[in-house]
Amino acid sequence: MERIKYTTPYYDETLTGAYTMKSGETIIFETPDCWGNALTEAITKGELYAKGLEMNPCGGPVQVEGAEPGDTLKIDVIDIEVGEAGHLAIYKPEFGVLAKYLDGDQTIKVSVVDGTAKLHGKYEIPIRPMLGVLAVTPPREKLSTLLSGTYGGNMDCNILNKGTTLYLPVQVEGAKLITGDVHALQGNGEVLASLEIPAKITLKVELIKGRQEKWPVLETEDSWSMITSGLTSDEANTYAMDAMAEFLTRRGTKNNLEWLTFMGLVGEANICKVVDTYKTSRFTMKKMYTEGIEF
Question: What is the mean pLDDT of residues 76-82?
Fold first, then answer.
């Protein structure tokens, strides 16, 4: 099984792929934390910024043989194995209304033992590793992996875990898949620091030819979610509702009115993240209400 150790902090169509994989192949990415493992208790996030650190190095890009615009990558998250410790970066300038409750900037090391985060030396929280970044490369301009959009990206969706499947719309030849920025723990919204941690990510990638949705589609054992990004949370929420309506009304036996009333009565609108330039939202429908539809 191929292991990818090369990382980049950019989505860039001109980058040569670190590897070319076939549809149906399984691959492992070995990724640092979002600071390239440069953050320690002896330095703050602000100090790393001052040194010019390029944030969010992610594994890849990996080319998928035969992938072209108009296709979809079906990506099964087989496993997310995290390191023995991660860090919380407390950096007041990024915490908005919450900053007034903090005394200053600091870095908090958090050990992970037997699937449990040891927090502040006295609290234990079960971890739930997630992929902060999973993306195909967008076309044309080089972009930071801190960004998100129709290509996926830095969505910080905390239900993108082991055992889930993400469908991404291919936008350039070869797709040029990128992943990383693993969080051992993160609440909805990423309102403060996440538990950033190095990881090994195992993905199975299949190519679906000739069809795609506009936005990333996340399938879990019991739900479908549309993950969308915008310059504001309101904009992202609007995109998510529209994307779910588009997804549902082209499937199943319900008419438009029936699908929309189900969205209103049992749908779930959630915020994935409120940080970074683009905010991310998701709209979720449980499979018990979606007639066994498929992608």
Answer: 98
The amino acid present at 267, given as its one-letter code, is G
Q: Are 277 and 147 contacting, i.e. CB atoms less than 8 angstroms apart?
A: yes
Q: What is the pLDDT of residue 102?
A: 86
Label each residue of the chain as H, E or C: CCEECCEECEECCCCCCCEEECCCEEEEEEECCCCCCCCCCCCCHHHHHHCCCCCCCEEEEEEECCCCCCCEEEEEEEEEEECCEEEEEECHHHCHHHHHHCCCCEEEEEEEECCEEEECCCEEEECCCEEEEEECCCCCCCEECCCEECCEEECCCCCCCCCCEEEEECCCCCCCEEEEEEEEECCCECCCCCEECCEEEEEEEEEECCCCCCCCEEECCCEEEEEEEECCHHHHHHHHHHHHHHHHHCCCCCCHHHHHHHHHHHCEEEEEECCCCCEEEEEEEEHHHCCCCCC
pLDDT recorded at residue 103: 86
Residue 41 has φ and ψ, to the nearest 5°, of -65, -15
Query: Model's pTM, two decimal places?
Result: 0.96
- Of 1.10.4100.10, 2.60.120.580, 1.20.1740.10, 3.40.50.300, the CATH number of 3-39+47-82+129-208 is 2.60.120.580
What is the pLDDT confidence band of residue 163, given thresholds at 50, 70 and 90?
very high
Note the pLDDT tens digit of each residue in 94-129.
Answer: 888 888 898 888 899 999 999 999 999 899 999 999
Within 13 Å of residue 48, how many CA atoms lie on the same side as its CB?
A: 22
**CATH, domain 217-289, list 1.10.3720.10, 3.10.28.20, 1.20.1090.10, 3.40.50.261:** 3.10.28.20
